[in-house]
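Q: What residues go here?
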């Protein structure tokens, strides 16, 4: 039976269950929760329809869920664009990190080596995954405030033996927000006769990924982030030939992508209990992604969010960690004000009291904080977030002498930019 007749049109969008969020949620265990805007790289703010789609109990072996899984996988693969026909989508239970480890353990043979290109905490995490998996890891470390240099990667690969057959890189390092340019990296990987594994956790669904490039073997992402689904499902978009070549190679039962794919192809089912509600929510989120104009539409909204945020923080006298030419419209890393009253925990609570959640910095040598631009938010929400940050700094007595000192001034400045078409 067609999935639409079971779960409604537009991948659950027609269920009519979108509820108005209450001001507070009292849980059975006594925790008092309140709706907040999440300015983080994930989990992040989702739409009411996406959340409503997760309110159904679905049978994991029921035909409608099998059809739903197939539809979700087809939609995810199509997002790759050019070259997508060579790929298969392998869904996996767990967070994106689970999927990254699955890719490492599946495609890098147990006695082989892995080159990890790192300019942030998540590149370091891939290296830690490789070592924990018993692979020999060659780690290339670049500066955290600039994209990795393809020329330097080329030099490293030239000096390494062929046992290092795979290279892994993070497309956007959410530890800072820096965007690594994939195509020139893929070029040098191809020249060295190696294969590229791409951690696209924070870019998939918004920023173009050159899946057509012959060096790219697998793209790893998850249900949250730019897709704006609920967290809990990772997935790997892998070349079909690479999956076939990796059959029997993985040294983990639950993380074996080749076996997961073969089982899914043969039965239409997941090997182990799937996160059914998360998959249902992702189906709805993907329908909304398509309605927004796909990858281009989502990127346009995120870029507008990023521009408003950058302009507003500059008006408050706050300095960005990254230069503008490598800042992805995903998350911004910001230096705090140079003021003796500054305290991140107090700042975090002040911003939270105004309805927004931000992230601490990931840098170890200097103090920073991070503000995300993704999720079900727009430029108007981002302007309110800048106002909340301004009010929090003012309450702490941390605004610099030449910064805006009132909510009205901050709003006026941002409104002027909007009228002029700058950063909106």
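A:
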């Amino acid at each position: 039976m067609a999935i639409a007749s079971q779960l409604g049109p537009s991948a659950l969008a027609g269920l009519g269950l979108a509820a108005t969020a209450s001001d507070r949620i009292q849980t059975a265990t006594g925790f008092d929760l309140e709706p907040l805007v999440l300015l983080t790289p994930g989990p992040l703010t989702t739409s009411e329809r996406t959340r409503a789609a997760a309110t159904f109990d679905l049978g994991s072996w029921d035909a409608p869920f099998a059809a739903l899984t197939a539809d979700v996988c087809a939609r995810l693969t199509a997002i790759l664009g050019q070259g997508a026909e060579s790929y298969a989508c392998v869904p996996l239970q767990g967070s994106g990190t689970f999927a990254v480890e699955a890719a490492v353990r599946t495609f890098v043979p147990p006695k082989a080596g892995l080159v990890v290109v790192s300019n942030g905490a998540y590149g370091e995490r891939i290296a830690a995954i490789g070592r924990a998996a018993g692979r020999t890891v060659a780690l290339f470390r670049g500066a955290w405030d600039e994209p990795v240099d393809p020329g330097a990667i080329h030099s490293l690969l030239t000096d390494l033996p062929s046992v290092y057959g795979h290279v892994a890189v993070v497309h956007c390092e959410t530890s800072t927000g820096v965007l690594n340019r994939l195509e020139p990296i893929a070029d040098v990987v191809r020249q060295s006769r190696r294969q590229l594994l791409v951690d696209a956790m924070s870019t998939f669904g918004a920023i173009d990924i050159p899946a057509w490039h012959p060096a790219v073997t697998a793209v790893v992402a998850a249900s949250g982030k730019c897709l704006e689904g609920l967290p809990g499902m990772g997935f790997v978009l892998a070349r079909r030939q690479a999956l076939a070549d990796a059959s029997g190679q993985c040294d983990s039962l639950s993380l074996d992508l080749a076996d997961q794919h073969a089982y899914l192809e043969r039965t239409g089912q997941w090997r182990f209990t799937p996160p059914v509600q998360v998959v249902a929510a992702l189906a709805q989120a993907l329908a909304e992604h398509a309605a927004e104009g796909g990858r281009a539409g989502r990127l346009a909204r995120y870029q507008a969010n990023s521009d408003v945020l950058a302009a507003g923080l500059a008006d408050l006298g706050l300095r960005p960690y990254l230069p503008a030419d490598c800042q992805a419209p995903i998350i911004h890393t910001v230096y705090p004000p140079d003021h003796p009253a500054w305290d991140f925990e107090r700042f975090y609570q002040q911003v939270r009291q105004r309805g927004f959640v931000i992230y601490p910095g990931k840098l170890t040598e200097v103090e920073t904080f991070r503000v995300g631009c993704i999720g079900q938010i727009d430029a108007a929400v981002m302007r309110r977030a800048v106002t909340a940050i301004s009010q929090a700094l003012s309450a702490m007595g941390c605004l610099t002498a030449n910064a805006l000192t009132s909510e009205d001034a901050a709003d006026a400045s941002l409104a002027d930019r909007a009228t002029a078409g700058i950063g909106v």
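A: Context that may help when evaluating the design: The chain has two domains: 54-289, 294-420. The two ends are 45 Å apart (CA to CA).
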